[in-house]
Input
Amino acid sequence: MTEHIKIIKVGGNIINSPAALQAFLKEFAALEGKKILVHGGGALATELAGRLGITQQMIDGRRVTDAETLKIVTMVYAGYVNKQVVSGLQSYGCNAIGICGADGHIITARRRTFPADFGFAGDIDRVDTDALSALLLHFDTVVVAPLTMDVSGQLLNTNADTIARSVAAALSAAAPCELIYTFEKNGVLQDVEQPDSVIPLLTAAHYQQLREEQRIFAGMLPKLDNAFLALREDVGSVYIGPADQLKALSEGRCGTKIIL
Amino acid sequence: MTEHIKIIKVGGNIINSPAALQAFLKEFAALEGKKILVHGGGALATELAGRLGITQQMIDGRRVTDAETLKIVTMVYAGYVNKQVVSGLQSYGCNAIGICGADGHIITARRRTFPADFGFAGDIDRVDTDALSALLLHFDTVVVAPLTMDVSGQLLNTNADTIARSVAAALSAAAPCELIYTFEKNGVLQDVEQPDSVIPLLTAAHYQQLREEQRIFAGMLPKLDNAFLALREDVGSVYIGPADQLKALSEGRCGTKIIL
Output
């Protein structure tokens, strides 16, 4: 397969809001070409855990996935969110199929034990691009829930930003790929208090400077680390920007383009 | 595709019991050839609904799927149960991919409004055999959660016995198919009190007689109605029997073979 492939990650705050999700899915369905959509769903998982009285343990802002929490994220990510997204895309004429990384052993991972025991949390070892390409031959879009599996068949909770980057990097060996991180913001911001202070073109050197000045915080750091790593792993282009302007974003007309 | 295909339904009491499920998955993984596995999960859905304080309304023993219940069955069937089954099969070396009927619009249904309003419950209109065949070309097994979608993209809760029969009937137009209903019993019983009173060969006339004598009850009626309908829809062979003896069952060495 040498066709251009878009790998798009949609963030949790979009998944959480029915109106924002519908706006995103409509934009997504209208994008031409073969696409892979990786979604989160952490806030909905936290909400369900709360309703069931299951305490969520966090280490440095990352969820510890104990056995009960793994059940919850499997239900929420691979069940509720994945099928909401698939059926929403179908309603906009995009023939999507929804899977998680365990399906067809498409994403193999190993349990993360460093720097702490995060329970059933996975770090990715391998993406099966043959299986993904087979799905993209028949379907317009593959929707991926952020769960993977180790070689013994154990399901593992896995960061969706990292899944999107790993999939884009693996597919880039055979086809030109574009990696797009979308969320509720307009892009990477020079000043987090100013929604319009979007940096149109972010270089690695500029990113390093923003980090040192502590202008970039928390959730943006792993996303940007993944974005730069993707470029180093030969992904053709990487964008970060608003979920409701996906077409403009993929054409470089809004948001932030990441360059080395 | 002209290869022989086995379509296997596994019942809720097997899904419910970790030991019984593992025994079934091991047997299933060892079966040769291309396979489709349709699963239920109603008891686990009822349990989750209970924990969340969502009352389940029943009409004539059938669940009414209101909006909250649809969320629950989507989480339990397409999420928890589907991915447990997929990862279990992977651990036994069977390369399975898990979907529901909404994925790739593989199973299109319409909302059932007769004889009562069952909420978001679907009756099947169409099975997309091209999409299923494309999946079976690349993967050993397709695992199907009992959810479908109407033409507007609305998810619908759908009877798993009926999904298995509809899939077998649709695929039979292109390839020889075998439909196998498995559960915790040894087969169709002459006397429900006697686990060993298995009827090895059940004809339509004998079934009619058993019904008239009220020897067959409740859950077995829709299963047997689907079994005979499958034969009338040109499915090659239909078996009903024990989930832990799947190989013997598919070779006619135990359980009940259904014939017209």
About this structure: The mean pLDDT of chain A is 95. The longest strand of chain A covers residues 177-183.
